[in-house]
Amino acid sequence: MRKPEKLRRWLSQEREAVYDCRLFSVTEHRRRSPRTGKVHPFWVLDHADWVNIVPLTADRRVVMVMQYRHGVEDFTLEVPGGLIDPGESPLAAARREMREESGYDSDDVVPLGVIHPNPAIQSNRCHTFLARDVRLTSSVSFDTTEETEVVLVPLEEIPELIKSGAISHALVVVAFHHLSLAG
Fold this sequence. Notes:
Elements: E1 11-20, E2 24-32, E3 39-47, E4 50-55, E5 61-69, E6 74-78, E7 81-83, H1 90-102, E8 104-105, E9 108-115, E10 126-132, E11 135-136, E12 149-154, H2 158-164, H3 170-182
Parallel strand pairs: 4-10
Antiparallel strand pairs: 1-2, 2-3, 4-7, 5-6, 5-12, 8-11, 9-10
C-alpha cells in the first residue's frame, strides 16, 4: 500500500484503560489532530487476534457450523473460528477451533489472508485459513458457552447463501472472498 501524500498520523497525548473483561478491554486514547492541533478522545476495543478457517472436504463440501449469536439474538451459519490463545500461533488456533467446533481436521492447512475486522474501533486482526481434504476425526468439544451444529454445504452453493443473507457474518464472507482470490 502506498504512503499517503498529504495525511499525517494523529499524535497520542495520553491513554487510559476504562474497562476490562475476559474478552476485550476498552482504552480511551486522547489524540491530537495533525491538521487542526485539537485533541479528541477515541475509544478502542483491544482484543486478541481471531482466526477463522474454511474446512473443505475432498468432495468440495464446506464444513460449517450453525450457532446462536447473542448480539443478533439469532442463529448464524459460519465457518469455525475464534480467539487465538496467548502464545498460540494463528495456524494452531485455526486447527484447534476447527477440531473443537466441528470434529474435523486436516494436515493440509494454508493461510488465505489477514484483515482488520473494524480498524475504526478495534486493534485486532482476523487470520483466515483453508483446510483441504478435511475428515471427521473426533466429536465436537464445546467450551462452557459454545454450542454448534455441523452443516456440510457444497462449495458451489456458498455465493448464493451469501447473496441471500443466509451467511451474514462479515468475517465469514471475507473468508470466502479470500478463498475465491486464492483460486
